[in-house]
């Protein structure tokens, strides 16, 4: 499952599919509605097809992705569940989307017109989810375009070019459960649905809540919730929800090299770290091209044989160095290295990396690069 199949990958992300199925149940129980599972960006770096298969098998009512190309890749992987794709450009291939039975999320009358043209060309009816901008001011039909959009939608529907499946919007502040913007957005979504009902268009599914809202705002769940990150076991609101989520990805590699560095020796580019006393180091063969942020230079730790060892010097494109101490810590070349994992045993986690580098764990897992093999456990993938 990596593009260099001639020799084993140096790093492996083990994906626990049983954890993903468990996380789906946790989120569904919190929200008390069905789940449209978001598997964009290659399933947040976990591998979209095996993850989607697992989530559908565990009861997800549908799947969500950003791009039509992502939806088509799921179809190519024999995923037959409903899929909604909601981010397009004027070049997006809506004919391919319609032919593959993709539910197209539209954010403007221009997108609707392009979808209608594709449907008419094929002589088919396109399935549509209307994406409403209720205040995030990103995707979704803009407030000042809404009345015109509803007219255009009524005409397209009357012509048989489109059938309404869903109405959706996205929260700007879902990770702040008490932010009044969340309730305001829900009110505007309800008003949009009422406008559609007034032209006789009744959506099957209305959805607003992302992971943090699904975990904390039962009142914003509508017909279904649309979580992504929580399904992978990463809790975006740990201070508000004690949901029993299990991180699904563990990144491992093997020690490449063990060697002595004498006192005063500088380590890695720029000699940013100089060893204060004779020591033994290990070379860890994953780097920023594999998703280990360079900003973690001198700040990360890894687990080898159940012990923590600190990274020293700069993280490079392909590798970084850890200090094993003067006695070498009993580490030998080839020993397994846990770069990050579930944290259940106190080891490093994607969240720890995110906190150290001023980002969110979403960015850590989606950044795991193509040289890292994905290995699936705990399921049928
Ligand atoms: C990414 C995304 C989601 C999922 O968000 P999480 O925070 O990962 O749960 C839901 N809806 C839309 C429109 C998205 O872009």
Write the layout of secondary structure elements.
Layout: E1 11-16, H1 17-31, E2 34-38, H2 40-44, H3 48-57, E3 62-65, H4 68-76, E4 83-85, H5 94-99, E5 103-106, H6 109-122, E6 126-131, H7 146-158, E7 162-168, H8 180-198, E8 205-207, H9 211-216, E9 224-225, E10 249-254, E11 257-261, E12 266-267, E13 273-274, E14 279-284, E15 301-304, E16 307-312, E17 320-325, E18 336-340, H10 350-357, H11 361-366, E19 372-377
Bound molecules: pyridoxal-5'-phosphate.
Question: What would you say this structure looks like, in words?
Answer:
The strands form three sheets. This protein has a nine-stranded mixed sheet with strand order 11-14-17-16-15-18-10-1-19. An eight-stranded parallel sheet has the order 8-7-6-5-4-3-2-9. Helix content is 29%, strand content 23%. The longest helix has 19 residues, at 180-198. Helix 1 (17-31) crosses helix 3 and helix 6 (109-122) packs parallel to helix 7. It has helices spanning 17-31, 40-44, 48-57, 68-76, 94-99, 109-122, 146-158, 180-198, 211-216, 350-357, 361-366; strands at 11-16, 34-38, 62-65, 83-85, 103-106, 126-131, 162-168, 205-207, 224-225, 249-254, 257-261, 266-267, 273-274, 279-284, 301-304, 307-312, 320-325, 336-340, 372-377. The mean pLDDT is 97. The protein folds into two domains: 17-232, Alanine racemase (TIM Barrel, Alpha-Beta Barrel), CATH 3.20.20; 249-377, Lyase, Ornithine Decarboxylase, Chain A, domain 1. With 381 residues, it is an alpha/beta fold. Helix 6 (109-122) links the parallel strand 5 and strand 6. Pyridoxal-5'-phosphate binds next to loops.
């Amino acid at each position: 499952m990596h593009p260099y199949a001639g020799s084993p990958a140096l790093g492996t992300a083990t994906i626990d599919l049983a954890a993903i199925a468990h996380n789906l149940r946790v989120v569904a129980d919190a929200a008390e509605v069905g789940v449209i599972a978001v598997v964009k960006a290659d399933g947040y770096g976990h591998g979209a097809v095996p993850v989607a298969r697992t989530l559908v098998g565990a009861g997800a009512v549908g799947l969500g992705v950003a791009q039509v190309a992502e939806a088509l890749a799921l179809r190519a992987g024999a995923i037959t569940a409903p899929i909604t794709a909601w981010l397009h450009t004027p070049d997006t291939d809506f004919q391919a989307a319609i032919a593959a039975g993709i539910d197209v999320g539209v954010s403007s009358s221009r997108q609707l017109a392009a979808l209608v043209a594709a449907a008419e060309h094929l002589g088919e009816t396109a399935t549509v989810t209307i994406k409403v901008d209720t205040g995030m001011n990103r995707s979704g039909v803009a407030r000042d375009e809404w009345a015109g959009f509803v007219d255009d939608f009524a005409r397209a529907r009357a012509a048989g070019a489109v059938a309404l499946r869903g109405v959706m919007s996205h929260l700007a502040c879902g990770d702040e459960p008490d932010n009044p913007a969340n309730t305001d957005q829900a009110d505007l979504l309800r008003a949009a649905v009422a406008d559609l009902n007034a032209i006789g268009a009744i959506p099957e599914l209305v959805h607003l809540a992302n992971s943090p809202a699904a975990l904390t705002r039962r009142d914003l769940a509508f017909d279904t919730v649309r979580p992504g990150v929580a399904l992978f076991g990463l809790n975006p609101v740990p201070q508000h929800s004690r949901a029993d989520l299990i991180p699904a990805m563990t990144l491992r590699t093997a020690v490449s090299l063990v060697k002595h560095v004498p006192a005063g020796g500088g380590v890695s580019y720029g000699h940013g770290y100089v060893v204060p006393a004779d020591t033994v180091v290990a070379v860890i063969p994953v780097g920023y091209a594999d998703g280990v942020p360079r900003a973690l230079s001198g700040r990360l730790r890894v687990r080898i044989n159940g012990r923590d060892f600190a990274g020293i010097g700069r993280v490079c494109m392909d590798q970084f160095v850890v200090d094993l101490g003067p006695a070498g810590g009993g580490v030998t070349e080839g020993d397994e290295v846990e770069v990050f994992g579930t944290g259940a045993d106190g080891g490093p986690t994607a969240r720890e990396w995110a906190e150290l580098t001023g980002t969110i764990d979403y960015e850590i897992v989606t950044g795991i690069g193509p040289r890292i093999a994905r290995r699936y456990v705990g399921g049928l993938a």
